[in-house]
Design goal:
single chain; 8-stranded parallel beta sheet; TIM Barrel; 13 helices; disordered N terminus; 24% strand; 36% helix; alpha/beta
Length: 391
């Protein structure tokens, strides 16, 4: 039973609790004006209507803390420029602070496992174990602002995948393992010209270098892809991780994902693949930058089109952390349903990964909350609470 906070207007607020009043509360299925009481890091109760208790949020949105399942942002901090390695703990601390600044309260840090070591210009060096050690060490020390979980991105087209996966055990609490194959001509880069443009822009590769690199990857894939995919899926299951597919393109890819037991499809590249995922009960995740930009930077299906067809379940900030909040608001405004827009970055990712203690504003759940003001070119964060503590 919820507490009528308006009737407690003259009652003192305990030093051990926080009351946030007069907000537009984005609940699971509705947006209501009301108040929330936080006690010991949890949501104690909610109430509708005005209140004179606690902190007046002046009609701003109060939303659950955002949940990010797949972000390349840590890699950017580990290597801020090609070939420039940054100390891992410093990278994690900066990454954590950046995510907190854009309303993300829970992140699954996507760390690539599977490297290319014999092709010197590949820019696919090993870093997963040391990055994981930095995250876990800082997490144990209480040095991070938000919740961090590990997500291993298993690169099928690589030389060291099995060896690197063997470096992780149950004590690492791997929450997601995604099966990722960047073989040229397939999946995300089925249009090889898009892959060429990506590498030429990011790494400055010449045409001759790209020809050599593409030939190397094609030969490597032919040797290892089948065994690597099966080994990675088996390892993910053994670790108790949620399995995710990556860049499914056709129905056969989705069928393979379903056989492996995938529960999330990261960035399907075609409407056909997204529809097949929906039919198979696999949650479809798309990039928030794709939604905001109006299309994929790789020339694949637009997230907006999948949303219009009812095929979009989860959004990920991918390579731009600030995009997650922006895209949730965009979806909510365009669809006339702010609760639905925010569900893609809160409740849906929580449910897909078994986090039943967060993702909604409801009594008993973690008090991960974000105060958001609209009316500007981009939504503005005016306050954030993680486990009831204001950042």
């Amino acid at each position: 039973m919820t507490l009528d906070l308006s009737e407690r207007a003259q009652a003192p607020v305990s030093a051990t609790e926080t009351v946030l009043s007069n907000a537009r509360l984005v609940l699971a299925d509705d947006v209501v004006t009301g108040s929330v009481r936080l006690v010991d890091g949890r949501i104690a109760d909610i109430a509708t209507g005005p209140s004179r208790l606690g902190e007046d949020l002046d009609g701003d949105l109060l939303v659950p803390g955002l949940i990010e399942l797949h972000t390349d942002n840590l890699e950017r901090h580990c290597e801020p420029r090609p070939g420039a390695s940054w100390p891992r703990e410093a990278a994690v601390i900066a990454h954590d602070a950046e995510l907190a600044s854009v309303g993300i309260a829970t992140v699954f840090d996507a760390i690539r496992v599977g490297s290319v070591i014999s092709f010197q210009k590949a820019n696919y060096g090993r870093y997963a174990r040391e990055a994981a050690d930095a995250i876990l060490g800082l997490k144990r020390a209480g040095a991070l602002r938000i919740s961090h979980f590990l997500h291993l991105r298993a690169e099928i087209c690589s030389e060291t995948l099995v060896e690197e996966l063997d470096e992780f055990g149950p004590e690492d609490e791997i929450r997601i393992l995604s099966l990722m194959d960047h073989t040229p001509g397939f999946r995300q880069f089925r249009d090889v010209s898009q892959l060429r443009r990506y590498h030429e822009g990011k790494y400055g590769r010449s045409t001759a270098d790209m020809d050599e690199y593409l030939a190397f990857l094609a030969a490597l894939s032919a040797r290892v892809s089948a065994t690597h995919e099966d080994a990675a899926a088996a390892r993910g299951r053994a670790l108790g991780a949620v399995l995710a597919s990556h860049d499914d393109t056709d129905v056969s890819h989705v069928e393979a994902s379903a056989r492996h037991g995938a529960r999330v499809a990261e960035f399907p590249t075609t409407p056909e693949a997204a529809r097949a995922c929906k039919d198979a009960g696999i949650a479809v995740m798309m990039g928030a930058p794709n939604l905001l930009r109006g299309g994929s930077h790789s020339g694949n299906v637009a997230a907006h089109d999948l949303a219009a067809e009812g095929l979009l379940d989860i959004l990920s900030s991918d390579y731009a952390p600030s995009s997650l909040l922006m895209a949730a608001v965009r979806l909510g405004e365009e669809g006339g349903d702010m609760a639905r827009g925010f569900a893609t970055v809160t409740r849906a990712p929580a449910r897909a990964t078994g986090l039943d203690d967060r993702g909604e504003i409801a009594p008993g759940l973690r008090a991960d909350l974000v105060r958001v003001k609209l009316g500007y070119a981009s939504p503005v964060i005016r306050g954030m609470w993680v486990a009831g503590a204001r950042l």
